[in-house]
Amino acid sequence: MKEYIQKVAVTLLVILAFVFVPLFFYSIFPHFTPFIIAFLFALLLEPFNLWMVKKLKISWPIAVNISYFLFFGGVILLTYFLSTKLIREVLELMKYIQRNIPEIQTWFSDVFQQIHEFTLFLPPEMGMQIEQIYTNFMQQLSNLNLLSSLGAYTFNLTAAIPNFFIVMIIFFISLYMMSLDLKKIKSKFFSFFKDTSKPKVEVVLSDLRNATVGFLQAQVILSTITYLVSLSGLLILGVRYAMALALLIVIVDILPILGTGSVLVPWGLFSMALGDIFLGVGLIVLFLLITVLRRIIEPKILGVRIGLNALTTLICIWVGFKAMGIAGVFLFPLLLILYKALIKAKVIQFRVKI
Fold this sequence. Notes:
Order of helices and strands: HHHHHHHHHHHH
Strand content: under 5%
Number of strands: 0
């Protein structure tokens, strides 16, 4: 009986931890952002460091220096790419949209004329609401000035640059120091547990790290595949600013529920309505190709990398997004991974008996 009560108590504590730990991290995350992210990247770089120590027969500090400067160089190259080619394409795309706003207004006006004929069969109140929505939308579209908005955004971004650089300096220094002292940090952490509990903690942390790394790798792989397929399709269709638009598709695809269809399908229908059948059909085909490809590879990648099926992951991402925003997209799947690791380590053993 005593053992049963102890198991129930442990299970209840774990459940409470699952409720309050996310809230705790969500509240303190903004204040410790560079240190938390640095620690996560130190864990991500650890397997590579261990591999170099084992295969290249070098010391831990040398391995840390190699991985650190490779990572630093990769960040510099990515920053250079984003600040040159991609930003230039985004600016050109915004100018293109600004120039074609009259054509967009004309298209929406034609569409509304068709909708207006349908609203004649609706109750007067509903028809007035639809007309009011259309009027407000067209007014906002006519007042839209992307370049002016970009100027204001650029000013705010410039004002935030000093703070950003301070955060990045702290991040890189923290990453280097944590990578060097990772073994000491782990040893200090394990010192809080009894010898009998350490094997369970090691199992949980090992599974959590492997699944966390796998989750991040899976997202990077899926986003990279989506970007490459989108970029290839847009280039074949002769779309201008293909790199910027492919990145937009990937960003929308990462957000829960939306997916690539939120960009490609309306764009394809809009193109066909303007008479560009080739582009419109091509965009719809590209959407179908990306969707089928992801449905084939996503379950395999997620299953192999983190041991979760696609539906479970989608539910976690959606619930996390609704509860905590973007942070919840990453935090809730990690909580599920932690839960599975605790069951595997037999920390949670409570079962319902009917």
